[in-house]
Amino acid sequence: MADILKTIIVAVSRNGTIGRDGDMPWRLSSDLKRFKALTSGKPVVMGRKTYESIGKPLPGRPNVVISRQVVIDSPDVDMAQSLPEALTIAEKLAVATGAGEICIIGGGQVYAQAIGFADRMCITHVEADLEGDAAFPAIDPDVWQAGETLAVPAGEKDSYATRYVVYERRHA
């Protein structure tokens, strides 16, 4: 099952913030549309806090939630005790649904573990320094190659301008 792509999808402020008080410290309508397009039909892997901040399973995609204590009783959610277990479940779901990719969507603890073996990262760089209590790990340029880049000015429903970058893992 190694041919299933593992992709991190995240929005990160210039100073590394990804969350504050269980929510995102910005409103980015254009980025939410891109997130939906990137993840639709593909298994999404997230931690319990991220799931709780969303409030319900994301429609149109298998949801795998990592939690060691809490069990989410929903027919639309598969539970896992760890990231490796979540990825195993997500790979099976991807194979069963014909998806070639698993999307890892947060939060901070999940990203910190996943960055070590993800194949790709789709990062929306929020052009602001923001206070928060959840952060994304540093992107090591020796490990990650920035590819496709798209500057996105702030639209009327966006609090900040962004820069969308797709990073591919460099292979030794």
Can you tell me about this structure?
Keywords: NADP, One-carbon metabolism, Oxidoreductase. Key enzyme in folate metabolism. Catalyzes an essential reaction for de novo glycine and purine synthesis, and for DNA precursor synthesis. This protein is α/β, with parallel strands linked by helices and 172 residues long. The protein has a single domain, classed as Dihydrofolate Reductase, subunit A, CATH 3.40.430. Helices cover 23% and strands 31% of the residues. The chain is built from 4 helices and 10 strands; from the N terminus they run ββαβαββαβαββββ. An 8-stranded mixed beta sheet has the order 5-4-3-6-1-7-10-9, with helices on both faces. It has a two-stranded antiparallel sheet with strand order 2-8. The radius of gyration is 15 Å and the shape is globular.
Query: How many extended strands?
Result: 10
The description of the largest β-sheet is: 8 strands, mixed
Overall radius of gyration: 15 Å
Tally of individual helices = 4
What topology, given as strand order, has the largest sheet? 5-4-3-6-1-7-10-9
Q: Sketch the topology as an H/E string, one letter per element.
A: EEHEHEEHEHEEEE
The general outline is globular
The number of distinct structural domains comes to 1
Uncertain spans: none
CATH architecture: 3-Layer(aba) Sandwich
SS-based structural class?
alpha/beta
For CATH, the homologous superfamily is named as Dihydrofolate Reductase, subunit A
Domain DHFR: 5-169
Pfam families: DHFR_1
Catalytic activity: (6S)-5,6,7,8-tetrahydrofolate + NADP(+) = 7,8-dihydrofolate + NADPH + H(+)
Pathway: Cofactor biosynthesis; tetrahydrofolate biosynthesis; 5,6,7,8-tetrahydrofolate from 7,8-dihydrofolate: step 1/1
